[in-house]
Specification:
By secondary structure, this protein is an alpha/beta fold. It is globular.
Length: 133
Amino acid sequence: MSTKIFVNLAVKDLTKSLHFYTELGYSVNPKFTDDNGGCVVISEEIYVMLLTEPFFATFTGKTIIDAARGIEVINALSADTRDEVDQLVDKALAAGGTVAKPPIEMDFMYSRSFHDLDGHAWEAVYMDATQVR
């Protein structure tokens, strides 16, 4: 069995956050979604658990940062083509996300990044393995 990853993110408005991620083309697993959190399916191995801040707080003794003001992590998703990178980020921006930084263009890599509605950082990355030295 392949290892799965569950990225847990604290969100201020669960309904708006779920809508944002479905606008990117991802689905929500209703079996793991209720008033406290929602499970966004990125792929068979990647899930994003959007948890209301009060519910998220039950999993940690640490202060929840405001992702709009600080950074906790940059979540990067691979893409098969440059066009897929552009499509994902364009969807994110159309759904209310914001540009995190300018695109990165290298001989072997192309990436663009965005912040979701709560300020969580995401990147879409295409790498041409034939160009990596």
